[in-house]
Amino acid sequence: MEIQNYCGTSRIAGCSFSVYPMADRFKEIILEALKTVDTSKVWIETDDVTTLVRGRIPHVFDVTSAIFIAAAKDGDHVVFNGTYSIGCPGDSTGDVYMAEDETKLNISNVKNIKLETASKFSLYPLGGGNYMDTIYSQIENMRSRGITVSKSHYSTRLDGNAFDVFDGLEHVFTETEASGSSHTVMTVTMSANSPSAKGVIK
């Protein structure tokens, strides 16, 4: 299959992600989380490596955050690893979902769940613009949302409630795309209920 070497014109967003429950019943945790999340406003496909969701930015973040929160809300140690992208070369499959409105289907089920998380994210505005200014301004935006921001090699660390962190990440992604980046990529690793954070592992 030939891959075209230019940024796509479709503004469909997507996230390729995996959720890793650190528990014996990992299969049940994942399946139960997927069962409780409404994915009707996104294109979704799962294989033996990752799950891919695609659609409008609000719905991509709505679904990915809801799946992670649903998997971790009962206290199991769960890790989320995802790559968000918009403007990827040749990206068009699932464009029908761009007709959806911006009403999020899962927000009412997760916004009041308190789940402390530690996250690291990296932002890559590709295809134009002063990307460092964009990155710095969006990191400051995170602080304004009450999220603890700290430096980390090759990434930025975020500590706070899972819903608030995902909400901040969505804003970062949206603002970066709106600033003129024709192709924006953001990688996120998030952990909840880690025994390391509780002092169990030194």
From TrEMBL:
Which Gene Ontology molecular function entries are recorded, alphabetically?
thiamine binding
Signal peptide (UniProt feature, chain positions): none
List each copy of the Thiamin/hydroxymethyl pyrimidine-binding YkoF putative domain by range: 12-91, 117-196
Q: What is this protein called?
A: YKOF-related Family
Query: Organism's domain of life?
Result: Bacteria
Binding-site residues, thiamine? 19, 51
